[in-house]
Amino acid sequence: MLRSTGPVENQVGFALTRVVVPLWVLAGAAFKLYERTPVNLPSGILAVAKAVGLDLELLLRTLIGLELFAVGVMVFVPRLARPMAIFMLSCFCGILVWEMVRDATKCGCFGALPIKPWQMLIVDGALLLSVLIARPRRAPATAAAMEPETLGPPRGPWTKPALCAFALAIVGLGVAFAVPQKAAKEQTPINRNSNDPTINPQPLPIPNSFGSKLDVQSWVGRSWRDIDLFQLMPRWPKDMDAAKRYVVFYSRTCEHCQEMFELYLIIPLDGPVAAVEIPASPTELRGENPWEMPEAPVEYLELPLGCNWIITSPIVVTVESGTITCATEGANYQTCFGLN
Asked: 57, 68, 288, 317: most buried by Cβ count inside 10 Å?
């Protein structure tokens, strides 16, 4: 049973470290666990994780599990509640400052809710400052408490708080990994009986998120029809089995994509180009402040809504006679254009 006695500082500290901060951390973990999509990870963490090849689904579940573990420690292990609250809030503030430096438009602290990093930093910073100020005061030592222990075995490194924390870590991670992924949503074909070769007669179901395990280099040497990204498209580019063509997947908020259009796609290349726009969210095609699209001799298409697309844009694919001969993701897109 949670109970606080003693000076006002102790009561305030108790309320913060055993009630307010745990509920705050639990709320964020619950939102992320409900949505279960890595796209809500802070942009900095997402960029680093993709750069080093981490499994984003695994990373998300692990971070949610650690947040649940921290909540359990603050509620059930009084001796570690304040240090854990300081540690968690310090980590949150550091990540939020990092996001502000990266000009992130949302922090992902509460899933897809559009909360800006500076707004969340005010709350987390205020909580951290409050926990630091409300330092508990020790009660005067009694004579009994000062007597050396004469009964029981000597205390070793595996004390009761450590054992409790270990158990809570197992529980927190267990909960985070036990919740199943959301089911994919079936797509309705545009016209299953059409003879139009650009219509996908049986598109794949739309997953909750796509791209966490994307390895575009593995596409080289394979037919474009064997690639899930193409099979998710309700409509394909024209002449995909022609001698040579390019397919670029781009976002209207991606700086490299804007550069690609303004420098390389405004003039004809040595093969036709299809430009496939990546939706900014499951419900919106474009995010805030999209760059202006220049006039370019390309075929425009879109990936379907309903999915959190975790793609490092642009993706550039060269297809020759139906086989992928080059595929790049991110800033080195010029490689597939033969410009490097």
From this structure: 317
pLDDT band at 27 (very low <50, low <70, confident <90, very high): very high
* 302 Cβ contact partners less than 8 Å away, ≥ 6 residues apart: 276, 277, 279, 285
In the 8-state DSSP scheme, what is residue 326?
E
* Residue 188 pLDDT class (50, 70, 90 cuts): confident
Q: Where are the domains of the chain?
A: 8-138+155-178, 209-337
Phi and psi angles of residue 318, each rounded to the nearest 5 degrees, phi first: -100, 125
CATH code for the domain defined by 209-337:
3.40.30
> In the prediction, which pLDDT does 137 show?
66
Integer Cα distance of 97 and 117 in angstroms: 7
Task: Name the DSSP letter for residue 156.
Answer: -
- Residue 148: per-residue pLDDT: 46
CA 192 from chain centre, in angstroms, equals 35
